[in-house]
Amino acid sequence: MSTLQDRPNWMEIDLDALESNYAEIDRRAGHGRQVIAAVKGDAYGHGAVEIARALARRGCQAVWTGHVPEALAIKAADLGLKVILFGGYTADQIPGLAAAGLLPTVYDMEGAAAAAAAGAPVYVKVDSGLGRLGTPLGEARETIRAMAALPGLAIEGIYTHLPFGDAKGQAWALERAEGFGALLRALEGDGIRPAVTQLWGSCGLYAGLPDPTNAVCIGHLLYGLTPFPAIAPAAEGFRSTVKELGSRLIHVARHPAGAGLAIGGAYSLRNAASVGVIPLGVSDGMRRLGQHGQPEAILRGRRVPVIGTSLEHTVLDLDGIDDPRPGEIVRLVGTDNGASISMADWAGWMGCSELDAVLGFGGRLERRFANADEDIWGSFGAR
Length: 383
What we know:
Layout: E1 10-14, H1 15-29, E2 34-38, H2 40-44, H3 48-58, E3 62-65, H4 68-76, E4 82-85, H5 94-99, E5 105-106, H6 109-118, E6 121-127, E7 135-136, H7 137-148, E8 154-159, H8 167-189, E9 196-198, H9 202-207, E10 215-218, E11 242-248, E12 251-254, E13 260-261, E14 267-268, E15 274-278, E16 296-299, E17 302-309, E18 314-317, E19 329-336, E20 339-341, H10 343-350, H11 354-361, E21 366-370
Parallel strand pairs: 1-21, 2-3, 2-10, 3-4, 5-6, 6-7, 6-8, 8-9
Antiparallel strand pairs: 1-11, 11-19, 12-15, 13-14, 15-18, 16-17, 17-18, 19-20
Protein backbone atom coordinates (compact mmCIF):
# COMPACT_ATOMS: atom_id res chain seq x y z
CA MET A 1 0.00 0.00 0.00
CA SER A 2 1.28 3.47 -0.88
CA THR A 3 2.37 5.82 1.89
CA LEU A 4 2.99 9.54 2.13
CA GLN A 5 6.61 8.85 1.21
CA ASP A 6 5.76 7.19 -2.12
CA ARG A 7 5.44 8.71 -5.55
CA PRO A 8 2.32 7.38 -7.33
CA ASN A 9 4.27 4.90 -9.47
CA TRP A 10 4.11 1.12 -9.25
CA MET A 11 5.16 -2.16 -10.80
CA GLU A 12 2.72 -5.04 -10.43
CA ILE A 13 4.16 -8.56 -10.38
CA ASP A 14 1.97 -11.43 -11.55
CA LEU A 15 2.56 -14.45 -9.32
CA ASP A 16 0.19 -16.50 -11.48
CA ALA A 17 2.74 -16.06 -14.28
CA LEU A 18 5.56 -17.03 -11.92
CA GLU A 19 3.60 -20.19 -11.05
CA SER A 20 3.12 -21.06 -14.69
CA ASN A 21 6.76 -20.41 -15.56
CA TYR A 22 8.09 -22.48 -12.67
CA ALA A 23 5.84 -25.38 -13.59
CA GLU A 24 7.01 -25.26 -17.22
CA ILE A 25 10.67 -25.12 -16.13
CA ASP A 26 10.08 -28.10 -13.86
CA ARG A 27 8.49 -30.02 -16.74
CA ARG A 28 11.32 -29.27 -19.15
CA ALA A 29 14.00 -30.05 -16.56
CA GLY A 30 12.61 -33.56 -16.23
CA HIS A 31 12.14 -35.97 -13.39
CA GLY A 32 14.98 -36.09 -10.88
CA ARG A 33 16.56 -32.78 -11.90
CA GLN A 34 16.39 -30.04 -9.26
CA VAL A 35 15.29 -26.56 -10.24
CA ILE A 36 17.32 -23.89 -8.44
CA ALA A 37 15.85 -20.42 -8.90
CA ALA A 38 18.16 -17.51 -9.69
CA VAL A 39 17.06 -14.50 -7.63
CA LYS A 40 20.15 -12.40 -8.28
CA GLY A 41 19.71 -8.72 -9.09
CA ASP A 42 16.86 -8.47 -6.55
CA ALA A 43 15.11 -11.33 -8.40
CA TYR A 44 15.71 -9.62 -11.74
CA GLY A 45 14.11 -6.47 -10.36
CA HIS A 46 11.03 -8.24 -8.97
CA GLY A 47 11.94 -8.29 -5.27
CA ALA A 48 14.18 -11.08 -3.97
CA VAL A 49 12.40 -11.86 -0.70
CA GLU A 50 8.88 -11.73 -2.16
CA ILE A 51 9.80 -13.95 -5.12
CA ALA A 52 11.69 -16.37 -2.87
CA ARG A 53 8.65 -16.60 -0.61
CA ALA A 54 6.38 -17.42 -3.56
CA LEU A 55 8.84 -20.04 -4.86
CA ALA A 56 9.08 -21.66 -1.44
CA ARG A 57 5.30 -22.04 -1.45
CA ARG A 58 5.65 -23.76 -4.82
CA GLY A 59 8.06 -26.30 -3.37
CA CYS A 60 11.33 -24.80 -4.56
CA GLN A 61 14.13 -25.94 -2.28
CA ALA A 62 17.02 -23.62 -3.16
CA VAL A 63 17.74 -20.20 -4.61
CA TRP A 64 20.94 -18.70 -5.97
CA THR A 65 22.08 -15.08 -5.73
CA GLY A 66 25.34 -13.15 -5.84
CA HIS A 67 24.25 -10.30 -3.57
CA VAL A 68 25.04 -10.87 0.10
CA PRO A 69 22.48 -8.40 1.58
CA GLU A 70 19.72 -9.99 -0.52
CA ALA A 71 20.84 -13.46 0.55
CA LEU A 72 20.76 -12.43 4.20
CA ALA A 73 17.29 -10.93 3.78
CA ILE A 74 15.98 -14.17 2.23
CA LYS A 75 17.55 -16.17 5.05
CA ALA A 76 16.05 -13.84 7.66
CA ALA A 77 12.61 -14.42 6.15
CA ASP A 78 12.87 -18.05 7.37
CA LEU A 79 11.45 -19.61 4.21
CA GLY A 80 13.13 -22.98 4.57
CA LEU A 81 15.22 -22.43 1.43
CA LYS A 82 18.86 -23.17 0.84
CA VAL A 83 20.48 -19.88 -0.14
CA ILE A 84 23.53 -20.39 -2.35
CA LEU A 85 25.91 -17.56 -3.21
CA PHE A 86 27.44 -17.20 -6.66
CA GLY A 87 30.25 -14.96 -5.41
CA GLY A 88 30.74 -11.30 -4.57
CA TYR A 89 32.80 -11.51 -1.40
CA THR A 90 36.38 -12.10 -0.30
CA ALA A 91 37.74 -15.21 1.40
CA ASP A 92 37.88 -13.56 4.82
CA GLN A 93 34.09 -13.05 4.68
CA ILE A 94 33.31 -16.73 4.13
CA PRO A 95 33.24 -17.76 7.84
CA GLY A 96 30.67 -15.04 8.55
CA LEU A 97 28.56 -16.05 5.56
CA ALA A 98 28.62 -19.67 6.70
CA ALA A 99 27.68 -18.65 10.24
CA ALA A 100 24.65 -16.86 8.77
CA GLY A 101 23.53 -20.11 7.14
CA LEU A 102 24.51 -19.21 3.58
CA LEU A 103 26.26 -21.60 1.18
CA PRO A 104 29.31 -19.90 -0.36
CA THR A 105 30.91 -20.56 -3.72
CA VAL A 106 34.68 -21.01 -3.82
CA TYR A 107 36.97 -21.12 -6.85
CA ASP A 108 40.47 -21.04 -5.35
CA MET A 109 42.34 -22.62 -2.47
CA GLU A 110 42.20 -19.48 -0.34
CA GLY A 111 38.42 -19.51 -0.33
CA ALA A 112 38.31 -23.27 0.20
CA ALA A 113 40.69 -23.03 3.18
CA ALA A 114 38.55 -20.31 4.76
CA ALA A 115 35.44 -22.47 4.34
CA ALA A 116 37.24 -25.53 5.72
CA ALA A 117 38.31 -23.58 8.81
CA ALA A 118 34.68 -22.62 9.35
CA GLY A 119 33.43 -26.16 8.71
CA ALA A 120 31.21 -24.80 5.93
CA PRO A 121 29.82 -26.77 2.99
CA VAL A 122 30.63 -25.08 -0.30
CA TYR A 123 29.84 -25.00 -4.00
CA VAL A 124 32.77 -24.95 -6.41
CA LYS A 125 32.47 -22.98 -9.62
CA VAL A 126 34.37 -24.08 -12.70
CA ASP A 127 35.21 -21.63 -15.48
CA SER A 128 34.48 -23.70 -18.57
CA GLY A 129 35.34 -20.86 -20.93
CA LEU A 130 33.26 -17.81 -20.02
CA GLY A 131 36.31 -16.20 -18.48
CA ARG A 132 34.65 -14.72 -15.43
CA LEU A 133 34.55 -16.52 -12.07
CA GLY A 134 35.69 -20.07 -11.50
CA THR A 135 38.65 -22.37 -11.32
CA PRO A 136 39.79 -22.89 -14.95
CA LEU A 137 38.52 -26.10 -16.50
CA GLY A 138 42.01 -27.32 -17.34
CA GLU A 139 43.07 -27.02 -13.71
CA ALA A 140 39.76 -27.89 -12.10
CA ARG A 141 40.32 -31.59 -11.42
CA GLU A 142 43.58 -31.00 -9.59
CA THR A 143 42.20 -28.00 -7.69
CA ILE A 144 38.97 -29.73 -6.63
CA ARG A 145 40.89 -32.81 -5.48
CA ALA A 146 43.06 -30.55 -3.32
CA MET A 147 39.95 -28.82 -1.95
CA ALA A 148 38.29 -32.14 -1.14
CA ALA A 149 41.38 -33.18 0.84
CA LEU A 150 41.07 -30.20 3.21
CA PRO A 151 39.92 -31.34 6.68
CA GLY A 152 36.47 -29.97 7.48
CA LEU A 153 35.49 -29.09 3.91
CA ALA A 154 32.41 -30.61 2.33
CA ILE A 155 31.86 -29.97 -1.38
CA GLU A 156 28.09 -29.93 -1.77
CA GLY A 157 27.98 -28.80 -5.37
CA ILE A 158 30.05 -28.24 -8.51
CA TYR A 159 28.73 -26.01 -11.29
CA THR A 160 29.61 -23.91 -14.29
CA HIS A 161 27.96 -21.24 -16.44
CA LEU A 162 27.77 -21.29 -20.25
CA PRO A 163 25.34 -18.62 -21.49
CA PHE A 164 24.79 -18.08 -25.21
CA GLY A 165 22.50 -16.06 -27.43
CA ASP A 166 22.70 -17.52 -30.94
CA ALA A 167 23.61 -20.61 -32.96
CA LYS A 168 27.33 -19.82 -32.89
CA GLY A 169 27.22 -19.37 -29.14
CA GLN A 170 25.30 -22.62 -28.75
CA ALA A 171 27.98 -24.53 -30.63
CA TRP A 172 30.61 -23.00 -28.34
CA ALA A 173 28.57 -23.86 -25.23
CA LEU A 174 28.07 -27.48 -26.32
CA GLU A 175 31.79 -27.90 -26.88
CA ARG A 176 32.59 -26.47 -23.45
CA ALA A 177 29.83 -28.53 -21.85
CA GLU A 178 31.56 -31.71 -23.03
CA GLY A 179 34.64 -30.66 -21.13
CA PHE A 180 32.64 -29.99 -17.96
CA GLY A 181 30.91 -33.37 -18.27
CA ALA A 182 34.29 -35.06 -18.64
CA LEU A 183 35.49 -33.27 -15.50
CA LEU A 184 32.53 -34.56 -13.49
CA ARG A 185 33.16 -38.11 -14.68
CA ALA A 186 36.84 -37.86 -13.77
CA LEU A 187 36.00 -36.52 -10.31
CA GLU A 188 33.52 -39.33 -9.79
CA GLY A 189 36.35 -41.72 -10.53
CA ASP A 190 38.33 -39.90 -7.84
CA GLY A 191 35.52 -40.53 -5.36
CA ILE A 192 34.24 -36.95 -5.45
CA ARG A 193 30.48 -37.11 -5.94
CA PRO A 194 28.81 -33.83 -4.93
CA ALA A 195 25.09 -33.84 -4.17
CA VAL A 196 24.47 -31.10 -6.75
CA THR A 197 25.94 -30.70 -10.23
CA GLN A 198 24.72 -27.95 -12.55
CA LEU A 199 25.51 -26.99 -16.12
CA TRP A 200 22.65 -25.18 -17.86
CA GLY A 201 20.67 -22.05 -17.15
CA SER A 202 17.78 -20.68 -19.19
CA CYS A 203 19.66 -20.88 -22.52
CA GLY A 204 20.44 -24.57 -22.35
CA LEU A 205 17.08 -25.55 -20.89
CA TYR A 206 15.09 -23.60 -23.48
CA ALA A 207 17.20 -25.00 -26.32
CA GLY A 208 16.70 -28.54 -24.99
CA LEU A 209 20.42 -29.32 -24.85
CA PRO A 210 21.69 -32.60 -23.37
CA ASP A 211 22.41 -32.33 -19.67
CA PRO A 212 24.59 -34.76 -17.67
CA THR A 213 23.95 -32.92 -14.38
CA ASN A 214 21.18 -33.18 -11.78
CA ALA A 215 20.19 -29.50 -11.47
CA VAL A 216 19.41 -26.41 -13.53
CA CYS A 217 19.71 -22.82 -12.36
CA ILE A 218 17.04 -20.69 -14.06
CA GLY A 219 16.70 -16.92 -14.14
CA HIS A 220 15.35 -15.45 -17.40
CA LEU A 221 12.64 -18.03 -18.03
CA LEU A 222 11.38 -17.86 -14.46
CA TYR A 223 10.39 -14.24 -15.11
CA GLY A 224 9.11 -14.87 -18.63
CA LEU A 225 12.16 -13.28 -20.26
CA THR A 226 13.62 -14.66 -23.46
CA PRO A 227 17.20 -15.94 -23.08
CA PHE A 228 17.78 -14.97 -26.73
CA PRO A 229 16.66 -11.33 -27.00
CA ALA A 230 18.58 -10.72 -30.24
CA ILE A 231 16.82 -13.50 -32.15
CA ALA A 232 13.60 -14.29 -30.25
CA PRO A 233 11.41 -11.45 -28.92
CA ALA A 234 9.55 -13.77 -26.55
CA ALA A 235 10.03 -17.08 -24.77
CA GLU A 236 7.31 -19.36 -26.12
CA GLY A 237 5.49 -21.15 -23.32
CA PHE A 238 6.45 -18.58 -20.70
CA ARG A 239 4.63 -15.48 -19.47
CA SER A 240 5.99 -12.11 -18.42
CA THR A 241 5.78 -11.65 -14.67
CA VAL A 242 5.54 -7.86 -14.98
CA LYS A 243 1.79 -7.32 -15.24
CA GLU A 244 1.73 -3.55 -15.06
CA LEU A 245 3.87 -0.42 -14.83
CA GLY A 246 1.67 2.42 -13.78
CA SER A 247 1.57 6.01 -12.64
CA ARG A 248 -0.93 8.83 -12.19
CA LEU A 249 -1.25 12.19 -13.87
CA ILE A 250 -0.08 14.97 -11.57
CA HIS A 251 -0.60 17.83 -14.02
CA VAL A 252 -2.55 18.63 -17.18
CA ALA A 253 -1.84 21.72 -19.27
CA ARG A 254 -2.83 23.22 -22.61
CA HIS A 255 -0.33 24.82 -24.98
CA PRO A 256 -0.47 26.35 -28.46
CA ALA A 257 -0.30 23.73 -31.18
CA GLY A 258 3.22 23.22 -32.53
CA ALA A 259 4.91 24.88 -29.57
CA GLY A 260 8.52 23.79 -29.04
CA LEU A 261 9.07 23.21 -25.35
CA ALA A 262 12.08 22.70 -23.11
CA ILE A 263 15.58 23.99 -23.60
CA GLY A 264 16.68 23.66 -27.20
CA GLY A 265 13.34 22.12 -28.23
CA ALA A 266 14.13 18.83 -26.48
CA TYR A 267 10.61 17.77 -27.25
CA SER A 268 7.82 19.26 -29.31
CA LEU A 269 4.06 19.12 -28.97
CA ARG A 270 3.64 19.10 -32.74
CA ASN A 271 -0.16 19.45 -33.00
CA ALA A 272 -1.02 18.62 -29.41
CA ALA A 273 -3.63 20.68 -27.66
CA SER A 274 -2.93 19.31 -24.18
CA VAL A 275 -0.23 17.47 -22.30
CA GLY A 276 -0.13 15.44 -19.12
CA VAL A 277 2.74 14.87 -16.71
CA ILE A 278 3.45 11.76 -14.65
CA PRO A 279 6.05 11.77 -11.85
CA LEU A 280 8.13 8.99 -13.40
CA GLY A 281 11.45 9.91 -14.96
CA VAL A 282 14.98 8.74 -15.61
CA SER A 283 15.63 8.48 -11.87
CA ASP A 284 12.74 6.00 -11.67
CA GLY A 285 13.97 3.78 -14.51
CA MET A 286 12.84 5.64 -17.62
CA ARG A 287 15.32 6.17 -20.42
CA ARG A 288 15.89 9.15 -22.64
CA LEU A 289 13.85 9.01 -25.81
CA GLY A 290 15.96 7.80 -28.73
CA GLN A 291 15.62 6.53 -32.27
CA HIS A 292 13.74 3.32 -31.55
CA GLY A 293 10.16 4.26 -32.39
CA GLN A 294 7.45 6.27 -30.70
CA PRO A 295 6.91 5.25 -27.06
CA GLU A 296 3.31 5.18 -25.91
CA ALA A 297 1.33 4.82 -22.71
CA ILE A 298 -2.33 4.00 -22.06
CA LEU A 299 -4.91 6.40 -20.63
CA ARG A 300 -8.61 5.48 -20.55
CA GLY A 301 -8.04 2.54 -22.87
CA ARG A 302 -6.33 4.67 -25.52
CA ARG A 303 -2.68 4.80 -26.50
CA VAL A 304 -1.11 8.22 -26.04
CA PRO A 305 2.39 9.26 -27.24
CA VAL A 306 5.25 9.84 -24.81
CA ILE A 307 6.83 13.09 -25.99
CA GLY A 308 9.47 13.83 -23.38
CA THR A 309 11.21 12.59 -20.29
CA SER A 310 13.44 14.21 -17.69
CA LEU A 311 15.03 13.24 -14.40
CA GLU A 312 11.74 12.98 -12.48
CA HIS A 313 8.93 13.47 -15.01
CA THR A 314 7.52 12.15 -18.27
CA VAL A 315 5.29 14.19 -20.57
CA LEU A 316 2.41 12.68 -22.57
CA ASP A 317 0.59 14.02 -25.60
CA LEU A 318 -3.07 13.98 -24.52
CA ASP A 319 -4.56 15.44 -27.68
CA GLY A 320 -7.80 13.61 -28.30
CA ILE A 321 -8.42 12.74 -24.65
CA ASP A 322 -11.56 14.53 -23.52
CA ASP A 323 -10.95 16.63 -20.40
CA PRO A 324 -8.04 14.68 -18.86
CA ARG A 325 -7.74 15.18 -15.10
CA PRO A 326 -4.89 14.90 -12.59
CA GLY A 327 -5.10 11.67 -10.64
CA GLU A 328 -6.04 9.49 -13.61
CA ILE A 329 -4.15 6.22 -14.03
CA VAL A 330 -1.56 5.97 -16.81
CA ARG A 331 -0.20 2.55 -17.77
CA LEU A 332 3.19 2.29 -19.43
CA VAL A 333 2.85 -1.50 -19.41
CA GLY A 334 -0.44 -3.29 -18.99
CA THR A 335 -3.93 -3.60 -20.42
CA ASP A 336 -6.90 -1.25 -20.19
CA ASN A 337 -10.17 -1.65 -22.07
CA GLY A 338 -8.60 -3.56 -24.96
CA ALA A 339 -5.45 -1.45 -25.29
CA SER A 340 -2.30 -3.31 -24.34
CA ILE A 341 1.43 -2.56 -24.06
CA SER A 342 3.92 -5.26 -23.04
CA MET A 343 7.27 -4.94 -21.34
CA ALA A 344 8.80 -6.21 -24.59
CA ASP A 345 7.11 -3.28 -26.42
CA TRP A 346 8.51 -0.84 -23.91
CA ALA A 347 12.02 -2.31 -24.06
CA GLY A 348 11.96 -1.98 -27.86
CA TRP A 349 11.07 1.69 -27.62
CA MET A 350 13.83 2.25 -25.08
CA GLY A 351 16.41 0.44 -27.20
CA CYS A 352 17.35 -2.15 -24.57
CA SER A 353 16.59 -5.75 -23.64
CA GLU A 354 13.46 -6.57 -21.69
CA LEU A 355 15.65 -7.61 -18.75
CA ASP A 356 17.45 -4.25 -18.75
CA ALA A 357 14.10 -2.47 -18.84
CA VAL A 358 12.78 -4.44 -15.85
CA LEU A 359 16.01 -3.94 -13.90
CA GLY A 360 15.82 -0.21 -14.61
CA PHE A 361 12.46 0.07 -12.87
CA GLY A 362 13.03 -2.64 -10.26
CA GLY A 363 13.49 -1.35 -6.73
CA ARG A 364 12.59 2.22 -7.69
CA LEU A 365 8.83 1.82 -7.83
CA GLU A 366 6.28 0.51 -5.36
CA ARG A 367 5.91 -3.22 -5.94
CA ARG A 368 2.47 -4.80 -5.96
CA PHE A 369 2.00 -8.56 -6.10
CA ALA A 370 -1.06 -10.01 -7.81
CA ASN A 371 -2.28 -13.19 -6.04
CA ALA A 372 0.28 -12.72 -3.27
CA ASP A 373 -2.10 -13.96 -0.55
CA GLU A 374 -3.71 -16.79 -2.50
CA ASP A 375 -2.72 -20.44 -2.61
CA ILE A 376 -1.98 -20.28 -6.32
CA TRP A 377 0.30 -23.32 -6.30
CA GLY A 378 -2.22 -26.00 -5.39
CA SER A 379 -2.90 -27.30 -8.87
CA PHE A 380 0.76 -28.18 -9.42
CA GLY A 381 1.91 -29.28 -5.99
CA ALA A 382 5.49 -29.85 -4.88
CA ARG A 383 7.59 -32.39 -6.72
